[in-house]
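I hope you will forgive my troubling you with a question about protein structure. The matter concerns a single protein, recorded as an amino acid sequence and a row of backbone structure tokens. Please examine both parts with care and let me know of anything in them that strikes you as inconsistent. Here, with my thanks, is the record as I have it:
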Amino acid sequence: MYVGWDADRFRVSHLQYSLLKPFLQQVSRAYTTCAKYLQKKLPLHSKTLQCLSAMDPVVRGQSQTGFELKKLTQMMSHMLPPDAATHQEILQYSVDQTLPTFKEGDDVVTWWVSVFETGKYPRLCQAVKAAMSIFHGPLVESSFNLMGDIIDPRSTSMNIATFSAIQTVKYTLQSRKQCAIEMFSRDDVKFGTVDRRLCSNINSAGTRDKAQRQKNLLRVRERRMEFDCQPSTNAAEKRLEDEEEENVARKRHIAKQQKQALERLVQAKRLNK
């Protein structure tokens, strides 16, 4: 059982330490409890997962692998030609000694790409491609559901880096059982010390976001010039109008904030006098 490098070195050098045996017993109990929980919760008996696991090159050549691959091609029959005969291809694939060797730690997708390039098993490879394209990231969907109070319905077009940052902030607040106002609160809202590091991070984040947006816009313009596909005049004019309105609204907001800051500063000086 892996307990960490430091704990393992301590165990080797202090075999008679009084707390060592109770500690290892607790670790063993934790491992056993976790294993029982995983066996109970994971869908190990799923027929679909068993068929998908047959794509692993490690199990190639076993009789059960051929049986599971046959069922996999039946599941993917809607992705294959009506007259596709994959049974013979599966038999040849199982005993083919010319295919690349697969070592522990190698990437399964990369290995199958090398099989695709041989062109030997077109129907089987087509079924494997369809199976590998199955979306298997439910954590992303669950994180969107958990963050429903922050991310609006337009989250599907959100940048990955932006989503990752919001997700990190959300989980941090949840773990500390605080809201943003509580976490960054000050005793005196008007005259309390401002977190300069937080302000610097906000400014730098805004600068990076603006640079990334300009970079993306330049990339889109280059692609449009490459394929001679320019946006319509009405759409371009509407976009310029929206940008101008946003700039005006931003300048008004900045001016309002500066005015309020000056008023608070004047009021503070009067109170000090």
In short: Residues 58 and 102 are 7 Å apart (CA to CA). The two ends are 69 Å apart (CA to CA). The mean pLDDT is 81. Residues 47-132 form one domain.
